[in-house]
Amino acid sequence: MPAGTRLDSLARSASVLCRCRQNGGFPGMERRVASSGENETRARGVLHRLLAIFAEVKPREVFSVLVLTLNVFLLLTGYYLLKVVREPLILAGGGLEIGGRRLDLDGAEVKAYAAAGQALFLVGVVRAYGALARRFGRMQLTTALTLFFAANLVLFFLLARLGVPLGVPFYLWVGCFNLTVIAQFWSFANDVYTPEQGKRLFAIVGIGSSLGAMFGAQIAKRVYVPIGPYNMMLLAAGVLLACLGLTYLVHRDDLAGSKDAADKADAPPGGAAGGFKIIARDRYLLLIAGLTLVLNWVNSTGEYILDRTLIESATSALDTGSEQRGAPDAAPAGAAPGAPLAAGAAVYLVDPQASRLLEGKIAAVKGGAFDVEAGGKVVEGAGAGLVHPRTEKGKKAALGAIIGTFKGDFFYWVNTFGVVLQLFFVSRIFKYLGVRFALFILPAIALLGYASLAVLPALAVVRVAKIAENSADYSIQNTARQALFLPVGRAAKYSAKAAIDTFVVRAGDVLAAGGVIAGQVLALSTRHFAMVNIALALVWLGVVAGIAREHRRRAADEPAASADLEAA
């Protein structure tokens, strides 16, 4: 080929290459790259539009808000698995042993006193957390806490297999776990987002919290009998490890955002002063602590009212039957829950629909089910989990089944309504009425609910009142309370918030337990306890009014965030 021809050919090839480069590459490659980019953009666009239904989300925030939402969903799922395990262990067990001496207390009283004991335990926890927060970065802190609690669950499982009583210790532990791990999650979220972002995005993250609580309660209700409470502990430990991985993804995404974010993430979040000192020096934080104290005082007293009413309702048929027939029939010697039962055996029958126990006898055995004569009729095909030998141990097992079923159903409805509120109301309340208005909603609901209980303290009324109170607490109140920490400093977000979310919460339980003790001495009825909560709800409204004034003042003192906070 002549030299000129070769040069012309090379020139044409170079021209083609130049045009390809100018046009973004070779035609086929361009189509493939464009297709891949379009798919990714389309997927992000769909997620962005979906999230926009619930709140204003910017494209850069889609990943972090979705992963945080999934993270808190799993955290609450695991917590509700443990919460449903906790209730039968402490309520059905009753009694309390101290130094080898058994105290004659019912399960509701033991639960109230154990909740008070958590406050003393958490004083040490707050100090230890503060020391860790002053030494380690946020990811190291989160990793240490998560692995610690996951290992604890494995230890509880092993102790249960050895027959060690777990009612009170596990109750204390679950309270510490709930407050510490979930408080750490929200501290992390407050650290990742600015006040402006948090106001927009916390409503979406809260959806994961509400959905996780609902899902966990429903799963616990379905698996409690098939796999047992102790295997549920291992399931929750696995969930915790998954949450740790999700936290790392958000941490890494935040680091990629800017150098300032990386510097902040590596710096220990705790300040030089401890959490209690930070609170004492800040009127705004003191008011938040007061809000948390009264909120949990009211809530814990309400939980005692619910538990006491449930146990009284569950055993009311037994008391009536004993009065009518005299002493109950003795169970066969050596009978125990889960042991083979024959026709004619005296049993307790669980009536989950009415949340009560019935005394009866087995009329017939049909494979793994029983026909039981109880309450003047024959109940056919009762499952093994609903029929227990009429022994003291059998009574506890049957009562545990009632409590577990009732609480699983109760938590399900609490969280179903909580999800509805979180999905369709919280972001709109924040946007149009503001955070300050949102804080008034729960005390108003509590005031109305306990006024109803003072008039008619029946189980059905208590159930409805507590479902309304707890669903608003877990959605509107929780999101609003977390948003209160957005305009505070980083040390307050970790150390002070940890102190409030652990010790102050349990201090409210101490006051509630003191009320229970006083109520036992004075022989107060559930109606009287409802009246106490009416008075506390009025105090609660006063504290919220103080927070609203301080929040407005703080917004005015911070020009950079003034417009955003004032809108809240």
From TrEMBL:
The keyword ATP-binding does not apply. The keyword 4Fe-4S does not apply. Keywords: Membrane, Transmembrane, Transmembrane helix. It comes from Sorangium cellulosum (strain So ce56) (Polyangium cellulosum (strain So ce56)). This is Inner membrane protein. The lineage of its organism: Bacteria, Pseudomonadati, Myxococcota, Polyangia, Polyangiales. The chain crosses the membrane at residues 62-82, 112-132, 144-164, 170-189, 201-220, 232-250, 410-430, 436-462, 503-523, 529-548.
